[in-house]
Amino acid sequence: xxxxxxxxxxxxxxxxAFAAEPxxxxxxxxxxxxGMFVAKYPDFLTRVVFKDGSYAVFDGPKDMFKYLLxxxxxxxxxxxxxxxxxxxxxxxxxxxxxxxxxFYVAGSNVTGPMGHELIPFEKTEEAxxxxxxxxxxxxxxxxxxxxxxxxxxx
Length: 154
Known about the structure:
154 residues, four-stranded antiparallel sheet, globular
């Protein structure tokens, strides 16, 4: 009985570690903003996961923010309170990171699948280095990204 409990505990810990990073997108997953197949762009992939287990995937942070900033247009059945987590791909490590804690560089000379893009970083130091190397204009936190900024990237 004791070994069964320990096995269940270990399995639970392993599964929760895997849940920290979402699964890769399926070949048919499309960005709800632009309609592109997102699996073709793993270096810019972003994902919003809802509390009911549904999700939306995007070909870059720009489209993800357009979606989040106008959720009633893109997914009228959902509210911001329904969002469980937000993932973005860190530019240097190419790992999925917490999008709400990421640092975003705008106005750089690096483009994504949809042109001008917000470039995400897990570490502020790496965002600062990137800004210097790639002519970035501003470094933003998740809550600082606005619809006005999104319009400047189009």
